[in-house]
Every structure is written in C-alpha cells, then in structure tokens.
Amino acid sequence: MRGIVKTAFIFPGQGSQYVGMAQDLVAAYPHARAIFDQADATLGFALSSLCFTGPENDLTDTINAQPALLTHSIAALRVLQTLRPDFAPAFVAGHSLGEYSALVAADALDFADALKLVRERGRVMKAAGQKTPGAMAALIGIDTAALESVCAETGAQIANYNAPGQIVISGEKDALTRAVELAKTRGAKRAIVLAVSIASHSRLMENAAREFANAVAATPFRAPKMPVVSNVAAQPLTTVEEIRCELVAQLTSSVQWIKTIEYIAAQGATKFIEIGPKDVLAGLIRRIAKDVHAVSIGDVASVKGFGEAV
After folding, report:
1. Please, which pLDDT band fits residue 308 given cuts at 50, 70 and 90?
2. pTM
3. Active-site positions?
4. Which of 62, 135, 153, 210 has CB atoms 3.0–4.6 Å from 176's, for a disulfide?
5. Within 10 A of 266 (CB to CB), how many other CB atoms are there?
6. CA-CA distance, 106 to 110, in Å (whole number)?
7. Which residues neighbour 300 within 8 Å (Cβ) at sequence distance 6 or greater?
8. What is the C-alpha to C-alpha distance for residues 67 and 116, in angstroms, rounded to an integer?
C-alpha cells in the first residue's frame, strides 16, 4: 500500500498563453467544453475562439490573456476532478493571475465571478499601462540581495522572485533601463527585456489597485476549503478578508514564488502538479525545491498521465 503523499496544485499566470490552448481538451472532454461555454456566455464574446485560433496579438492582450489562462486552468482542473473525484490536493497556489485559479480550486470563488474579476483586472492594468507605460525585465544569474540593492538605487522594483537566479523587475522605462545596466555590472549573466508595456507588480499599478479594490469588494468569496498559499506573504489565506486584501495588494507587490514553494514543501508536499497551459511553473519548482516531483497537466496527453502523477 502506498504511503500518503501530499500534493499541491499549482496554476500558471500570464506568459503561458498560446494560440491553440486547451483546444484538444475541449474536443476530448465534455467538462472542459462546459467550462469554455460558460466563459463565452459569462464574458459575452467567444473567448474559446480566441484561445483556439487567435489572433495571437489579441490573445496576448492582458485583458484577454487573463480570462483565457483562468479558463484553460479550470477546464483542465474539472477534467482531473471527474477522473479522480476522490482526490484533493493538500495545498493550492497560483503565480500572479494563477492565484484566481487557485481560489476557484479551493472553492473560495465561483468560476463565473473569477472570470469577471480577472477581466476587470486586465482592464485596469491595461489602462494603467496606457496612462503610464512601464517595462519589465528578467534578470538571470544575479544574487537576490545584489538585485534588491540595484532596484533601491534605480527606482525599479522586483516583480517576481521566480526561482534562484531568475528574478523579474518592473517599473518606469527609464528606471528599468538603469536597473538592467547596473545589474549587468553587479553580476547578472543575462537580462531579457520583456515585450510588455505594463509594469506589473510595481508602484505603477497603484491607481489600478485602488480601482480594482471596488470590484474585489463587490465579489462574493468564501473561506477556502484547503490552504491557498499567498503570492504576497507566502502564507495560507484562510479568511475572506485575507483574500480580498491579497488580491488588491498583489497588483503592486512582488510575487514571492520562491517562498511560496518553499513553504508548501516545508509542510511536507512532495508532488506539485501544474494545471493549465505550458510547463513554466514546473520548471521553476524543480529549481526551488530539489527533492520534489513536479509535472504539468494541460492537454489530453498529460491528463492521461494524471493517475501516475498522484
């Protein structure tokens, strides 16, 4: 008899979308089709067509990418739940936008309400980027303390602590340019300026956060049925008030992904299942926690391996 293995469900954020996402899942599984049908009806346009056939420029627009990623993740989750109705993870977490998928998985938020929230989140973030364009860059190979010092000196801000040696910074374009150049002199092996004009997880999102707070306050939440580990504090969210505060603070705060995975692993979780498009988070998890098993499930082939994953 196998021993009890603690498993965490993990949900991806922006950057994992691609044209064709979830198309095979929807063709193969009625529960996935039902989720996409619900998304189309809730949003009032054919999100499914945008996911399946693009165009890519429209899909990557943050106002569309956010509900697309949520919908793909929840479609895959519902398929897994029908295949293994007896199975529940010990923890859930999501990277930035993925935190909404985690809240749906923990039954703290209805899918339709999550869709409306992330659509609004995308709208206010896009508007903030249009009013005050920003920039983001991924820094590879630089010590965390050194990069934090660089940000303090230049006015940039750390957006994502993704994995050891991989950190994303964010801020005004001039500040980001200065930070990238200074980081190179402080040991960064590589700097990749991202193709975005929105400075996510930075002070440039303060107005967006204030506006978004109204939508969060109007949305019904429930206490989660399992621990949802926070992006901001890397601790479980246990009350509705904590969830509301988290979702507003998240827009201007760093994503503490390293600490999130370290926390979950420290509680005894040894298997991490990324649910949604691509496998970005599984790769990061393997770099953060060396002794855990991480897999990604988001298409028909990977769903068929779900039994072995749990």
Report:
1. low
2. 0.97
3. 96, 201
4. 135
5. 9
6. 10
7. 24, 25, 28, 29
8. 8
